[in-house]
Amino acid sequence: MDINVRKRSQVQVVQLRGPLRMGPAVDSLRQTLEEALGNGDTRIVMNLSEVPMIDSSGIGLLVRFLAVIKQRGGNIKLAQPSKFAVQTLRLVGVLNLFEIFDNDDSAVESFA
Amino acid sequence: MANKIDGGSENSELSELFDRSMPAEPTAIGAVVDAISEILAKLEVPEQKRFEIALAVQEALANAVVHGCDNDPSKHIRCRLKSASDGRIVIIVTDPGPGFNAERLSNPKQGENLYADHGRGVYLIRQLMDEVRFERPGNEISMWKY
Fold first, then answer.
1. Cβ contact B51–A53 (<8 Å)
2. Cβ-defined contact of B109 to A93 (cutoff 8 Å)
3. CB neighbours (10 Å) of residue A85?
4. B85 CA: distance to closest CA in chain A (Å)
5. ipTM
6. What tens digit of pLDDT does each residue of A67-104 get?
7. How far apart are CA A20 and CA A4, in angstroms?
8. Average of per-residue pLDDT across B103-121
9. Nearest by Cα to B55 from B107, B144, B129
10. Which of A23, B9, B75, B93 has the highest local Cβ count within 10 Å?
11. B119-132: per-residue pLDDT in tens?
């Protein structure tokens, strides 16, 4: 999985490319989110437009960090989640935990 | 190659499409899932159904690695894909572990389970597939898609 992080208006925009599943992909994203938290960055936009699959490990990672970041006054918002990402998050009942946006810009602006 | 199995699809004639043993490590899962997806694509299985099968296989293999093999890469997991003459597909994942009671799993959509970092795999499999059976003492899962 490719993970590209850039900062826009004090928001970390994390672009993921590839399946988010147990193994290197989930490990890499966990490291990325831990680094963000370590730097005090708690405003995160996760672009899932190029994530064709999220498994239960990936879901677990997202919801755990969502809980931790919300406790610190931040949020993880999803931008352009793929059809199958939305289906999977809905199947396990966590889709409504996230704010979802059509693009990175609107997700970033929602933090203002 | 064809054989008959008992169970949810009694006496169905099955053709074996895939039979692979993989080491019990997370990095080995993706290649098996991708190989099965490619076979299904060649069989012209619709994209939605391919996605559902691929995610179910991903979850079953991940469970086998973590719970069936304790993340021990010296242990091996067997994954088979078979098709019935009427188009139904079954994936069978077998691990060397002691098995478990799938009926005792909690509902991941209830209460604080929503924010848990684990406990969704078997639930997802049951949502994605049409028939799911745990065989032997619980260390073999058969997942059917109609």
1. yes
2. yes
3. 24
4. 29
5. 0.93
6. 999 999 999 999 999 999 999 999 999 999 999 999 99
7. 14
8. 86
9. B129
10. B93
11. 899 999 999 999 99
* Interface contact A67-B55, CB threshold 8 A: no
pTM > 0.95? no
Inter-residue contact A24 to B27 (CB < 8 Å): yes
Extract the tokens encoding A11.
């928001």
Using an 8 Å CB-CB cutoff, list chain B residues near A94.
114
Structure token digits, residue A83: 């059809």
**The dihedral of CA A83, A25, A1, A111: what is its sign?**
positive
Instruction: Return the SS3 of B140.
Output: strand
C-alpha closest to that of B115 among A44, A61, A41, A75: A61
Q: What is the SS3 assignment for B40? A: helix
The beta-carbon neighbor of B116 closest among A23, A60, A87 is: A60
- Cβ–Cβ below 8 Å for A92 and B30: no
B57 confidence band (pLDDT: 50, 70, 90): very high
pLDDT digits (tens, 9 = 90+) for A17-64: 999 999 999 999 999 999 999 999 999 999 999 999 999 999 999 999
CB spacing of B27 vs A93 below 8 angstroms: no
Residues of chain B neighbouring A84 (CB-CB closer than 8 A): 51, 55
